[in-house]
Fold these 3 entries.
Entry 1:
Amino acid sequence: MFNRTATATVSVALACALALASGAHAETVDGTVSAVTANGQLQIVLPSSTRVSVGDGVQVLAEIPGLGPVAIDSQWKVTNTEGGTVTAMPEGAPSGTPQVGYIVRIEVQDNAATALDPIPRPVDPMAGQNLTGGHSAPVPPEALNLYLAARELAHSAVPADLASAADLYRRAAEMGHPEAMTELGALLSFGRGVNRDDAAALYWQVLAAEHGNSDALFRVGLIHATGRGVPLDESVGAEWIRKSAEQGNATAMFTLAILHEDGVGVSKSMTEMVRWLEKAAQNDHANALFILGHIYLDGEDGLIPEDNQKAELYWLRAAEAGHGAAMRSLSEFYEGQADETATKWAEVARNTPEPPEFTQDLRCLSHWECYLPQSAAAQPVPVPSGQPTEPTQPEGVQSERTVRVTYVVQDCDRYAASAHDIDRPDPNISIEFGDLDAQRVISECLDDISQWPDTRRFYAQIARGYFKGERYPEAFEAAMTGAELGSGQAMAFVGTMYKLGKPEPQDFEKALQWLEKAGRAGSIAGMHFAAGMHLYAEGVPYNPQAAAGWFQNAANAGSPNANTNLGVLYDSGQGLPYDPKEAAANLMIGLAMGDTQAKEQVLQNANKLTQQTRIEIQRLLHQEGMYRGAYDGVFGPQTLAALRARIMN
């Protein structure tokens, strides 16, 4: 399902929470503080077409580097909505000072939210009973901080952190926190920090959907549309996705557009496709903007008139959002009429890393959260390029070859899975290279490959065994096979072998090509190694901008070490503008996520950071209540004690 175009980064809606008023079902609306007066009055910018009322409750969320959004305990109330401006007054003396740019969440109590059809609530197998009352009870204020703490831990690749995240999400969910419910459901669907349990996952997603959570609605749609733990039903899936789109979820809008393009679970309709693309574009969905540019460039069979000006504007918006394919389209568009502009966009496109491969499948919400049916092939469904493509096979003709893939943990995984491989079916399974038993790995993986020859992770895993046993030609061949099947881990292995010169002659250019390909396939290891080659000029030209781009991609994929490296680059002005605040923020994120390099940088090598970055670190520690000394950039006993306390917390 979901045959679509170009490279889309699936956006995940901001997930924060606001206590619900007792006895009333409320929609929550996100906004941004645009001004703050001396008496604590806020002016708030809301998304277009959003409505709130006088008296609606307002929660303010402070963005704390290393912790993420943290709720200010005080409550505000909407006092005026005239002239398109929303103002809110504190109900008492504020416990924190809001700043311009802070996130707010407004609780709309007038049933403005789209009413959902009655949803049968399944029994929670984990609790052994049926929860009732859903959103009828108020959410305790502490549920928000439990949720925010869980969200930080959920980015980690450490099994203990994931288990803690699942526990914190569950505690917040049991208090009635909708975002915690849907995130807990996702962890249960994929066995991250908990055992996989499809029935329990659906339970929490449905419960969150009853609160009107658009991410949960979308996830329930994907579960039904792919038959993940339930009978596959594309029509039911599409209906849930439609509800999510109507709740304002831009990813759901884009997905619904593609469903209408192909007629999957909905009517096949170009008109409906464009309508939902336009809605997604209004919400700044980069891939929707990119595809609309192609549609308006050529027009569509008399339904959509050709409009070059619209095409240009859509591509500009997508390109400014970092969409590499839109940059290339702009370069071609300007060729011959504004060559200097064409060259500029071509250069920007060359220095913009492609997003990870998982973003090319609408069923993937992250590198680990892909709602694929058990019988699905290993390869992702491609995102449409915005241009027609020829079918690889005549319509109606099925391939005679049966794809043989397993998504269940096998012995090859148990003895050889790498912690860096996003394909491994259980995030709690990983073996350090030094602990590999080469002969056991080779034996077990050969046996599993004989049964499931299309399972790409097995080839990356057996390559580790061959390499540990110094059987380099076999390691290279196995890694190439896995790479051809789409394994990012195998691609990174091929790149590393070219870099080491085993068994092929050392070739740094090929090494970089394979490592960047691995990075585009979602391999965090590939992103890091590619960044290192650019930054340290390892057989390739020095390119700190490209290094920064790959570190940013790795940070977005959840790598703590990538945040640390970004902090160092911001501090030194390599590949990024010198920015002490960003340097400090990224270093503190790496520290909060337990990165060893971050600890060494701030505890042992702080003198290598600029004084202003050290001052900003002291400011952040002060904001977190851990430091009361001077902002002087001197990391003496008081600052070091605060940093150690921050690490312990």
Entry 2:
Amino acid sequence: MNADDPGVTVWLDAAAEEGLHVTAVHDSDFAAHNSAYAGMILPDAVHRQADAALVAAVEKYVSAGGNLMLVYDAGTLDARGLYPLAKSRFSNLAGVDFAFYTTLRDNTIQRAPVLGSAAILDALQVPPGKAVPYFDSLAGIAPDLTPLTPAEGPFYTIDTYYYGHVPYASFVNRGKYDGDILLRSIPGLVAGYRRSGQGSVLYVNLALGSLARRTDALLLHGFLHYFGVRSGLPTLASVPDGTGGLVLNWHLDSNAALKPMETLKAIGFYDQGPFSYHLTAGPDRDTAGDHLGLDVPHNQRIQEWIKFLLARGNTIGDHGGWIHNYFGAHLTEEDKSFELYLKLNTQALEAVTGKPIVEYSAPVGNHPKWVTQWLEEHGFLAYYFTGNTGVGPTKSYRDGERSDHTIWSFPILTLGKAASLEDLHQAGVGDADVSRWLVGVTDFAARHRVCRLVYAHPPGAEFFSNALRVWLEKTADLQKQNRFRWYTMTRAAEFLNDRQQVKWTVSIGKDGAWILEAQHPSDLAHEAWFLPRNVFAKPVIQAGAATVSSDGERWIVVAGEGKTLRFTASRVSTRNTD
């Protein structure tokens, strides 16, 4: 298989975004040099076939101390492309028997929601609101595993925008599992981590790569992160200085936003930030001539708001094309005549701001692939996205192919099936629940040291003014502790583009200490690396400028100005973490 095949690149892209060194390796290279790898992934979809020699090499690698991530249908077919008669040859490593195609046929794979504890879903970086309590019956869930009882709960499952609980496909499996059960479902074990020989196996019974290629990349990212942590590996931070935060993306789609903008001032929003404000600039909202739009070229009031927001460091972006509801309702993948509306919107905002417009959000979430191409051609850096919910800024894949090349998509955060404040109000969600969610996602971003996006419309603020005040108190407190930042899409995207130019390697010195060396063509400043504290002693800077601190869970090495950095870290543990 070619290294540029989307089935391969989706893994490499996600790993790079998670700050991990992952490379594609052919079977023959692995068989010859497997002792050189800190961990190995057998991905879904791209490696269904495996001959007996590869199966034996993988078993030997794990037995000798290797870390394996075994995913879904990897190696379920033999060299001839046929299912083995009884079960997968990797069943012993997985810890359960699976892939009973010869006996179950069309029932070999089944769909159902997955369940796990709040702590496990958090470890997989599933944010609050995406992870939701599961109140349905527990009967029939993974009958061969330790039975679940309501007294152990609450159990959590994964929701998606608009549709609710996600029914994930997984292999029916059987057997008593002797490791840590991470996720389970009606078909059986969905994910587990166990020791095997001197090594370990993370078995993930989900089509992670295939899901990510169809705008559900959350668990691909989550399990890559989990595998890196359990394997005790250094990671490159995805946020400046390793400080987590949120992007707050306001959508102003009509003149109905103007009065609530005053409400936001009373709540105190303009005292924090910066935020990303996206405007639909035309004079109409639903149809041409209704005069319900912002009319940016002729409305002095909105022009003053734009200047007010810019003066406080916020960014102004496009919210679709000129007539919000008409554009969102009629835009298609085939009809590119709507490019005119994109141009009108961009030109109107640039005329007022005097700056290039480089952020975008799609009205009603309608974002055909050609729009992404148009944005890239016109120098945009980022867009909000209703796919891949719960993930940080990413290079999205759609219909099996990578759709983002020079631009970053910013998936939204959700609370169950809803996302914006108006959605939550219409769904009957109360002020206290919205407050817990907003505080929860803030704490999530700060603890995990990642960036996520929340979006809203100013009119929604009038439904949840108390929740927003509590939220601002939380963010202000964390900012004082230097544990949280507000990011605009532009700032986050610019950092990620700069981060892509970082070249770093890890080697092991004669004394057994790990040596990390990094280079950047202009400046490493604000790049950061995380090293698990239960694996490494405090890093020692050997060359270049950097500071070393700890949050109790990890060492944080933040680079100062300069093109090169070198530091060492001795291992306090020679085995992967348990």
Entry 3:
Amino acid sequence: MKLNFKILGLFLFITLNLYAQDSTTSKSYFLNAHIGADLAKGVRFGLLVYLNENLSVEASYGIDVINFLVASDPNKRYSIGINWHKGIESNLMAGISFSHSVFPSPYITRQNFISANIGSFISNTSGIKFFYKGGVLFGFKHNNSGNHTLIFPNIDLGISYNIF
């Protein structure tokens, strides 16, 4: 629960700082809401804040993709990340994110993921974007049988909307 408040606090701080900037010096900062799916962050809803034309931070909440598809007891995923964008005119982006899973099952106590992706997006004039990224996922799981490290390819797909 404390992690949720820390992520929310970080986003509120960043967003308020963007509003506090002089409008003549800030060019294209956006608040972006998105839904997406990948192995690390799960099926999720999130927010992304552009700090400048090349950097953005994101936070999301979701559930495990497999649990979502088979409608079993879902584990919750909380994620934060940072993204690099080549520029406003380019669709190229790369990012790294950290995800923490909370399981309802007593058999798995902790699971964390670090994912690094590179990808692009297709946008239209109304502010809706379809994004796609690929990369690698490192998973760290602790359960009754010990510690496990997992490495998987990761594909991230989703739709986002520029709120402002």
